[in-house]
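User: Please predict structures.

Assistant: First:
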Amino acid sequence: MPSFKHKTNKKIVLDEKSIITLDSKHKEIEKEFEKEKHDIIPDLRAKKRYFTKLLETNLPIEQQLEIKDKLLEISSQIKELKINKKKYYLNNNKYIFDYLKPKNLFLWTTTKLNY
């Protein structure tokens, strides 16, 4: 009678999205910031330019006031996006730096040794 156990052929399936590390979450947030920088903010600026050109034309006062309100709203959205990015880095810099410092130190020493 054999004294060993047979291996089971079960495979453990891991869901990549369920495993969240600081590094993955930081990269995800950085991708959002890049999307805002390259997609959302330029669109908002284009709308702002369009509305400022509309203000230069002769429009009734009511429409001018509506356009000015839209301009203020667009400006506040742009500022909010920029402020959110700064707040994120200011509030989380300690955690990010402490986490990434050993990683970067390892990369720096290995690249220095290779030269």
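Second:
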Amino acid sequence: MQGLLRLPANNALRISFRRHGRTTKPDGLGETLNNRGVKRLFVLAPNYAAGKDMATGVKKTFKGEIVGEEYTGWPGQLDFSAELTKVRSVKPDAVWVFYPGQAGARSCSNMPNRA
């Protein structure tokens, strides 16, 4: 699951997709952030190859400032208190999050309530 969590509002644009047998290119999501007027972005993803690849793709086309970037434990980390404290401290316009699959749904389920 990946998406755009606008702060401090409770609404989120969540984009979920599957592509069997192909590599997913996240570059277009940076453009989506630009088109939505996001100037300051915080990146939050799991610390493994796919998490870093997806974040790199977004950062490649995002034209604003990356104000924070955290790579978390995967798939077992379910407490994101420390990361969300960092998010609040830098006051981004949006948080880009990528957590795939079933573990991603569990990971992200508490984030909007804690941000």
